[in-house]
Specification:
48% of the residues lie in helices and 14% in strands. It is α/β, with parallel strands linked by helices and 450 residues long.
Length: 450
């Protein structure tokens, strides 16, 4: 195997020497540069598997080097050395495409772990495209874009927030990010933040020491420690209580945890992925989600498209799901052309999960192992935004509240949903809502959504 090569960029000679010695002891060939100009020259003339750069250089910012690498050497992982506590710079570096960051004073054990993860990524076979396509079915433009995004973020350690409607496959996206990343040999630990009672959340996530409370008869590692070296997936992160949001923020910023009853901070190495079907930015404005945590978990954002935006994929998904159902039932299932046509024109408010449930039910009800339109039992087609409003829990109107106020709240939420789905393209949002652009603009202004 060819010896790995690394480029170290730092304007302090003693730091360059320390890093060089550390990497050379790991059997890595090292080149060093004191500034941006010489680093760029070395990168243009050489082949490297890792770049480690300081944030502040004599002739510019390490962020400029991160940008240059993303443009000219996109497959070269670059890690950034930041000043202690300078989380803002670290977040900016991750947004620009840095693999990871490490703070001064340098923790050599953490540095070696980072380097091993980086080299593991560069030495992995480039088969992620086939792997993702075999797990994340669909040939629509939306799915090609999603797979490309997964491939990009898998090459980073940055926190990723995955958003999309219920049933779109957000956890599958999180699993694919983990399984195509340098952490793939370590645990993937999913946590449903809405399923853990608030009073148990801290002990579940952080663990506890024996004797820390009544009933704590043994030490118990938390879910964060169970994900050590791997990925922690926080599903429905919007349901995380505010007091736990503060503690999660510390985990991300300091990379340490403190179990209940423990007197010291314990270093931790996990990548945070999160997901929700709610609008986090709206919850921030309502004071229900911390703004500082929002910017930490939302370093990179991935949208999982609803099934109604993937019409060309429905037939492929149907074929695959029927094959799985046939294996379970022990006989081959067929579906009539009319039933396939009905599915292709259905709006799927429950997305892929609903398609799976529809076919499972139809497989049980059909005669002679052939699914007809009547077996599907599809709900009447309504406008997608109206369907979302119908499926939501009703909003209770308190005594004395004007009907107009309640209707305005429903209208406000429908408009926000449409704007979010269309990435705040007002023309597309107006079409989705079935109104003119001028009418939508008027409603946005009237409802104070500008």
């Amino acid at each position: 195997m060819t010896q790995a090569r690394a480029l170290i960029v730092d304007d302090e000679a003693d730091i360059r020497e320390l890093l060089s010695i550390t990497l050379e002891r790991m059997q890595i060939d090292v080149s060093a540069a004191p500034d941006l100009a010489s680093a760029t020259q070395l990168l243009q003339n050489g082949d490297y598997q890792l770049c480690l750069t300081d944030m502040n250089l004599s002739d510019g910012s390490g962020l400029s080097l991160v940008e240059w690498i993303q443009s000219h050497r996109p497959h070269l992982p670059v890690a950034v050395i930041t000043a202690h506590g300078n989380v803002e710079s670290a977040v900016r570096a991750l947004k620009l495409g840095a693999f990871d960051f490490i703070s001064k004073p340098l923790d050599l054990a953490a540095l070696r772990k980072l380097i091993m993860a980086t080299l593991k990524l560069t030495n992995s076979p480039d088969s992620t495209g086939w792997f993702q396509e075999s797990r994340l079915l669909g040939q629509s433009t939306a799915m090609h874009t999603l797979r490309e995004m997964i491939d990009k973020v898998a090459r980073s350690q940055a926190p990723v927030h995955i958003y999309g409607e219920s049933g779109t496959g957000k956890e599958l996206v999180a699993q694919l990010i983990h399984e195509t990343s340098a952490r793939r040999d370590r645990p993937f630990v999913p946590v449903n933040c809405g399923a853990i009672p608030s009073e148990l959340m801290e002990s579940e996530l952080f663990g506890y020491k024996k004797g820390s409370f009544t009933g704590a008869t043994v030490d118990k590692p938390g879910l964060i420690q169970c994900a050590e070296g791997g990925t922690l997936f926080l599903d429905e992160i919007a349901d995380l209580p505010l007091h736990m949001q503060v503690k999660l923020l510390r985990v991300i910023q300091q990379k340490t945890i403190r179990p209940l009853g423990e007197t010291r901070e314990i270093p931790t190495d996990v990548r945070i992925l999160s997901a929700t079907h709610k609008h986090l930015n709206l919850l921030v404005s309502e004071g229900k989600f911390r703004e500082d945590l929002f910017y930490r978990v939302n370093v990179i954002e991935i949208r999982v498209p609803p099934l109604r935006e993937r019409e060309n994929d429905i037939s492929q998904l149907t074929d695959w799901l029927l094959k799985q159902q046939s294996k379970l039932m022990g006989h081959t299932l067929q579906i009539s052309p009319a039933a396939v046509n009905a599915l292709n024109h259905y709006h799927f408010p429950g997305n892929v999960r609903e398609l799976e449930n529809i076919l499972e039910r139809a497989a049980t009800l059909c005669s002679q192992h052939r699914i007809e339109v009547s077996d599907l039992q599809l709900r009447p087609i309504t406008h997608p935004v109206a369907e979302q409003a119908i499926n939501k829990p009703y909003t209770e109107i308190s005594e004395g509240e004007a009907l107009g106020n309640a209707l305005e709240e429903i209208e406000r939420e429908a408009i926000l949903n449409a704007l979010t789905q269309t990435r705040f393209n007002k023309t597309k949002a107006a079409a989705l809502l079935g109104m003119s652009f001028r009418s939508l603009r008027y409603r946005i202004k009237k409802l104070g959504l500008e």
